[in-house]
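Hi there,

I know you've been waiting on this one. I reran it after we fixed the sequence typo, so this is the corrected version. Both the input and the resulting structure follow.
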Amino acid sequence: MSIDPDGLSAEEEERSAPGLVGTFSRKWWSFGGVAIVLTSIVAIWFGISATRGISWNPVAVKITSPQQVDVTFDVTDQDGRAVSCTIVAYDLDHTTVGRTQVDLPASSLSSTRYTRSVRTIAPAVTGEVTRCELR
């Protein structure tokens, strides 16, 4: 290890001297930081947009007869608009034995509970809402 007249070793002088290596490294760190910030913003935007819109949650299923199932469910975020939902009834083997499309009235409440019937071609053991969309 050699020491120059300024009292710095060759290694210290190399580290303290501005040059191509330091500038190059700073540019990549800056670029990487900007890329991380932009990627985070895009991920947050996609996350927020994915949680917006109508949703539904099951509440209850009542087998009213061998030919009918009543499904109770909550619809959230109708935003004052009418909704169309598909309700399906299944038998013990998970075979579809009934399906209906129901139109629900507009609601400005944050959550609205509905009960709708599905006619079946064979005895059903359960039913569910498979899809809802704003009309």
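Quick highlight: Strands lie at 55-65, 68-76, 83-90, 96-104, 111-119, 126-134.

Best,
R. S.
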